[in-house]
Every structure is written in C-alpha cells, then in structure tokens.
Fold:
Amino acid sequence: MVLKTKEQYLESLKQQKPTIYMFGEKITDRVNHPLLRPQIEVIALTYELAHDPRYDGLTTAVSHITGEKINRFTHIHQSTDDLVKKVQMTRMYARYCVCIQRCMAIDALNALSIVTYEIDKKYGTNYYQNFLKYIEWFQRNDIMATCAMTDVKGDRRLRPSKQPDPDLYVHVVEKGDDGIVVRGAKCHTTAGVPSNELIVLPTRALTEDDKDYAVAFAVPVDAKGLKFVARSTVPRERGKIDAPFRTKWGVTETVTIFDDVFIPWERVFMCGEWEFAWPVVDLFAIYHRHSYCGCKPAVTDMLTGVAALLAEYNGVEQAPHIREKLTDMACTAEQMYACGIAASVRGKPMGPGTYVPDRVLVNIGKYIAGTHIYEEIYRVHDVAGGLAITCPSEKDYFHPEVHPYLEKYLKGVAEVPTEHRVRAFKLAEDLTAHGFAGWIMVASCHGGGSPEAQRITIYRDYDFETRKKIAKCLAGIEPMENFPEFKG
Ligand SMILES: Cc1cc2nc3c(=O)[nH]c(=O)nc-3n(C[C@H](O)[C@H](O)[C@H](O)COP(=O)(O)OP(=O)(O)OC[C@H]3O[C@@H](n4cnc5c(N)ncnc54)[C@H](O)[C@@H]3O)c2cc1C
Structure:
C-alpha cells in the first residue's frame, strides 16, 4: 500500500487516539468532528489526486530508496525537476483549498536528510540511518505528518537556556538507553490534528549552553504526554450559497504540548549537536519558502479570479483603474511563482544528494507573498464593491417573500443571472472579508517566517560584491579586465 486512498487515510486517523482539546471540548472523534472535518478534507485531496491519471508524475514521484511510486508529499528531492514539480504541485493543490497543509513535514524531512548526514559525518552518529529507515516506512505507508518547529519562545530577547522558564523551547529532560524524554511546547502547528505523525525541529540557532534544545525527532500524534490545544477557522454548515469556501475547506492550528514525551532513539535525528540547529532551521526555511512560491500564487489566482469575475458581472471590466488592479494581481502571482520555478532550476545537491532550491530566490518569493497580500485583498475590495461584505444571507435571498426583490435589485449586467453575481460576492466575502480572510493575511505574513526573516536572508546572501565590482569597473575605479564573468 504505497499510495493510500482517501478511505485508507481516514481509517489510519481512526486507528490513533490523540489528545485534542478545542473550544472547551475534549475531542474523541477527530475524523467526524464538524469543525475538524474540513481540514481533513484538505489532506484527503492529496490522497485522492495522487490516483488521478491527469496528475500522474506531478502528485507522485519515484522513491530513490525503494524505486516504488510514492506520493510526492513523501519524496526526498533528487533533481531540479523534482523541485519544479513540487512548486507546480503546490500551486495546483492550493487553487482548491488555499493551503494544502501537507508541505511542512516533507520540507522538514528534506532538511533532515541533509543535516542527519552531516552530523553523522562529523560525529559518527547514527542519525542518517535512523532517517533512512524512517523515510522508507513513511513512504511505504504514505504517512500524513506535519512539522512542529516554532516554539512558544517566551521573551524573544533571550536564548532558550536563558529564559526564566526552561520549558519555553522544547528540550531534552532525560536520556536513557532506549530513548529520550522531551518537554516544552510548540505553537501555530498547522495540521497536527489531521496527521499520523509530527516531525519536530529546533526553531532557531543555538549556542553550546542551549544544547539540550538541539533536538529533532518524529513522534506519533497519539504518543503518551502529547497534547494538542486546537482552534479552527470555524467552518460554516453547508448551505446553498453562503460561505462557499468555509463550508468545504478549513485549517486548524494547535499549541502542541510535550508533557514529558518519550522518544525512542530510532526516531531521534539530532540530540545535543547544537551547531546543527541553525543548518536544519535554515534548510527547513528554504524548503518551506519554496512551498510558499507555489501556494501563494494559487491564493492570488483565487483572488484575481473573483475580482475579474465581479468586474465583469458589475460591468466595469474595461475601466482603466480596474484593468490596472487586475494586471497588478497577475504580476504579483507570477513574480512569486517565477521565484519558485527559477529557484528550482537553480537547485543544487547537498549532503547525500538531496536537491535544495536557490535560497535567495525562495526568500524573495515568500517576501512578496507576505508583504503583498494586504494590497491584493484591498484590490479585490475595490474592484468588487461593498456587496463583498453587505450581501444578504442565503436565508433571505431564498426567502419567498424577499427573493423577487433581491433577484431584481441585486442584478448587475443584464446577461448574468443574479444568483451568479450573489455567489461571486459570497466567495469574495469568504476569501477577503470574513472568517478565512484573516487567516489568509496572517498566514501569508508570518507562515514560513515573518517578512524580516526573509529580508535578513536576502541581504546576507545576495551577491552584492559582484554588483559592486560591476560598478567599480564601469566607473573606472577598477580596469575592465576585472569585470565579473556572467555565471547565470
Ligand atoms: C497560519 C500560520 C501557520 C503556521 N504553521 C506553522 C507550522 O505548521 N509549524 C511551525 O513550526 N510553525 C508554523 N507557523 C509559525 C511561523 O513560522 C511563525 O509565526 C513565524 O516564524 C513568526 O513567529 P511568531 O509567530 O512566534 O512571531 P514572533 O517571533 O513573536 O514575531 C513577531 C515580530 O517580532 C519580530 N521578532 C521576533 N523575534 C525577534 C528578535 N529576537 N529580534 C527582533 N525582532 C524579533 C519578528 O520579526 C516579527 O516582526 C505558522 C504561523 C502562522 C501564522
């Protein structure tokens, strides 16, 4: 069973009994809970479309370990083509559901494939062997996992070991012959609830004093002592028109508490090698910002689509300021995507041969996503008009006494049925003005790291020296023989 079906995925969730609290309730059936099911449906899509012949080779890959056909969300990138396909696949999926939520774990596992290899090279440890056994099992069982990296972090000025409470970053509290015991909490963990496993990484660079915090491992979601405190994007009950997005898809994040959780050694990928905390954080960030270069263009596809549709339904699509806004949205989407594709093409192998995309380009792509989303939403509001928030509910639209009035007065251009226009406004409301809209904004800004984290990386890693050399030669400060060779 290398490619699970949706039903097998749902069954795998039922086999585990994680401890989940949400809105004051202890959840006993995560699969059928109405507030959790829309998120599970998002993940289920990745199992359904892996069997769709239209996407064969995009949603699937060939395992470099077993040679078997596997879900691409369990794959370790073996070429630049794998990196390109990952960005394409992410855009394809996110056009349905905004955030496909299965990227975190595979971004973490690709980072671990390199870092475990490098730690073993330096210390003769067994982490890479642990990793290889784990990834083979992960691929063969088409496991759904997420990455819990971001710690709760307490006072941002202080390193983990200097915090007044030592548990504000996840750390090792006991080491034994069989394994380790970890304590602490992560937050913002997307998709812990619909997962089988969590991949846990450190969240920042560490010093020797922080070595107990240099810990990476995999843990099943129902491990003893692991607790999830969830909140959801609060989906709406399915009706006819209202909230077309939130009646189908959803997201849940958790505060993920490790209350002295035992991790057997074979699931540990780093334990105390503090100087490798930064490489794993950095690589995860590169891979995850690469994912954003696929999903955020898809969000812009949705926003552009609804704005263009409403412009047409309102009869303003030819107005110069409307065309300008739609053009700007197209530019934003394709800039982010171009960064993802170009970063993939410029990818290079590291460690055991895992391909890594270009770090500067993925950071630029994610930076555009995080800083442009608010403007994009403004553009939808401007183009759509105020009915993006004031459109009456479906209960009134279909009320026999009011329907004839609303049918007449909510009409835009004559040739478009009123119901189509109302439906488009309801989608605009769902994506930009209600419920899920807030999530889209905060997720674009902070997900994958806050904008400043990308600026720091871009400034640090961009080749300014070559540019200075060009200027020096052109200004006659250095001879033209020193003009830098173009390397693409
Ligand atoms: C919707 C969503 C989903 C997410 N999903 C996941 C997930 O699945 N797994 C996961 O591990 N993480 C996840 N994250 C976490 C995400 O990576 C963090 O939100 C991000 O790294 C910012 O961390 P923070 O939220 O703690 O904010 P903070 O770190 O508190 O940042 C707030 C501001 O303070 C600044 N700042 C922080 N520290 C310093 C400092 N020392 N010096 C100067 N400035 C500082 C930041 O630049 C930012 O401007 C998710 C986040 C969101 C919003």
Notes: The first helix runs from residue 6 to 14.
